């Protein structure tokens, strides 16, 4: 695949049936009794918001994400479905239905104390730079008795036994492809692929937590954990390609390189790794957690 043809947004992966299904599991666990206003944090392109509105069309959702590209996609998608709210004022209006999307940090929310009945975050809590601050903000905006629910593919325990070598091979092949691209550029008289050192590693620099570690932090923020679950997902060849192509992950896995080039190498690296190991998919565990304020 050409370096210029990789979609680095989260939209393509978020639309995969295998990804939708594991997030549907999360949405199906929500107790909707008394839920009218919802915060969807690190909402990306609005997958969880859409799934929740399909189940509960009368709720109002405030989606928040730091990336304007993702909130822009979400806004256009929901406008096309007739489900877009114009902003916080519309979200707060009596009888509001639908979702608004704000480009904002999830640990400094423009929501009032106790304003929402439900807070949800899909596969992004591990990226929070200050997890304690983030959880304190979740507890602040939740009304007493409100529910907090999240899942994550990046935690201690995510790799089924024997699966880690597959991911190692993927990164190795992606690095080989990057080197090949670099050598080809130099041979053609072009400058080498630039790399800016010291700016990446967000996900790994912060460290993954175990389910027990997350439960402790949630409790310390003043919430009571009500359930901890685990579900298995089978990631297909095409699914892992789209994960690798996502710019937010590419900038971590191939730190310092231009995101479009890193994403393209990770996309192509899946084919080589899967061919080398003679596989078509790889398993992964998801963690799901629910808590009450």
TrEMBL record:
Keyword Nucleus appears in the UniProt entry: no
Domain of life (superkingdom): Bacteria
GO molecular function, one term: S-adenosylmethionine-dependent methyltransferase activity
Record's keyword terms, sorted: Methyltransferase, Transferase
Methyltransferase type domain mapped to chain residues: 40-150
Classification via InterPro entries: Methyltransf_11 (IPR013216), SAM-dependent_MTases_sf (IPR029063)
Keyword set includes Transferase: yes
First and last residue of the signal peptide: none
A Pfam entry, by short name: Methyltransf_11
Example GO BP: methylation
Name used for this protein in its record: Class I SAM-dependent methyltransferase
